[in-house]
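Input record (one chain):
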Amino acid sequence: MKQLPQIERAIAIGLRLLIAYVFLAAGIPKFLDPATFVEQIANYDWMASLSPVVAVTLPPIEIGVGVVLLLAPRTWRQAATLVGFVLMCVFTCAVYQAYSRGIDTECGCFGKGSERIGLRKIAENVCLTLSTVALLAVEFRRRRLDRTVTAAPGAG
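The corresponding structure, as predicted from the sequence alone:
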């Protein structure tokens, strides 16, 4: 079986650990204090009527993404990374729209006491989004390599 070069494997593991940590660190405090999270979501003044639904459903999804990235087989990790990418895109859009409208509030990313929204938070979200893209690229390349080797004539 052909494998990724060691540096790519190390990068993939590092990215997986980083992204898993971020989603677990974000999801757990919000899961434990949904009332505060409802307020933080409503402060964005963007689909505020959905705040209670988002506050109850988002933290378990974030925790799930983190756990799957740490413990599950590759196919599940790829799916979790894709979910993480979509979430990061939504989070980045939410922060950007609030910032561009001059809303001054906590981001709510890590529960109560999160940093305020601004250019730094937007940049941080963009970097995390790009990290999910990089992890997806490595994981899907690895999957393609595995399929190429399996389908090669005379293999096995």
